[in-house]
Amino acid sequence: MTDPFDYCIAGLGNVGILFAYFLRKKKVVAISRRAKGDRERVTLKHSGAILWSDEILTRRPEDFVKCKKVLITLKAYEVPWALSFLKDKGEIFIVMSNGLGLFEEAVRLHGKDRALGGTVTYGLTSCGEYCTELRGIGQVKIGGSASIEALKNSKEMTEDLISGGCSANAVEDIIPHIWLKGIINSAINPITALLKKPNKILLENPHAVELAELVVKEGKEVANKKGIDLASDPFKEAIEVAKKTGENFSSMLQDIMARRKTEIDYINGYLASEGMKLNVNVKANLSLYLMIKAMERDLGVR
Fold first, then answer.
1. In this model, does residue 51 exceed pLDDT 60?
2. Are 73 and 10 in contact, with CB atoms under 8 Å apart?
3. Torsion (CA) 272, 75, 145, 169 in degrees, nearest 10
4. Separation CA 8–CA 43 (nearest Å)
5. pLDDT in tens, 250-277
């Protein structure tokens, strides 16, 4: 039997290609249902120029492959399937997808020592099939659920990413960071998608700002009721994101423009669901959730 790959990257979308670049010095294979052969050429651009382009090994999910770490970069609604279907392919499972509740599902299926989660704040947009453009330099955070073994694994992966040029750090408890980003996304993503405007709309339209502040307030209350101590104020962070990525289209707006299913169920939908369980007023999150679901249905997205 051959030695296992260092990383299986599940998903070759924008985030998957970014991680393929950062982990290019390691032994990597991509797992993709879109794979047409044993290799696919992937490209990362920056400022319109090619930063990196290479052929990487690819396998389909049903193919036999073994990896030390399975890095999941799929859309949020595909993560539960991946955590279950790919369970025999790796030792450590890292969920880097947007969305709330996904890391907790990884812990439930694989245990707190084998499950990691993370956040990515690099600005990315698609430039074609297997092509991603880097639109903003950000940071990657990786961590577990207050497990010594998970922290060790997080530090190992962080070192691998840093060696590939990534700004990354390991944290002991990733949940507050995932929730902070989730609440930020709950304000930016659906509002930009509904208005079909870039992120700077949160700086230019006072009604959009007022709505974002209300959505964030609800999210903070849900986090508080769940005992999650956010590292910073998500509304201030959302405004900073809008300033830094003003010309960018949010991932949800990109999905709507491409007539794809969005991740709304794992952002505002999750906050609304959890809030109702905890008797928190989440009418703004619920309204945005229903409006995006209505858009999906109108576009014929299922």
1. yes
2. yes
3. -120
4. 18
5. 999 999 999 999 999 999 999 999 999 9
Is the per-residue pLDDT at 141 higher than 90? Answer: yes
Q: What number is the average pLDDT over the span 31-57?
A: 92
> Is pLDDT of 174 > 60?
yes
Residue 1: which pLDDT band, with cuts at 50, 70 and 90?
Answer: low
Cβ-proximal residues to 42 (8 Å cutoff; 6+ apart), any chain? 12, 17, 20, 30, 53, 54, 55, 56, 130, 131, 132
How many angstroms separate the CA atoms of 31 and 54, rounded?
16
Could you tell me whether strands 5-10 and 115-120 are parallel, antiparallel, or unpaired per DSSP bridges?
unpaired
Pairing of strands 140-144, 115-120: antiparallel
How many Cα neighbours within 13 Å face the side chain of 79? 27
172, 285, 293: which is closest to 222 by C-alpha? 285
Sorted by where each starts, the structural domains of the chain and their CATH numbers stand as: 5-173 (3.40.50.720), 176-298 (1.10.1040.10)
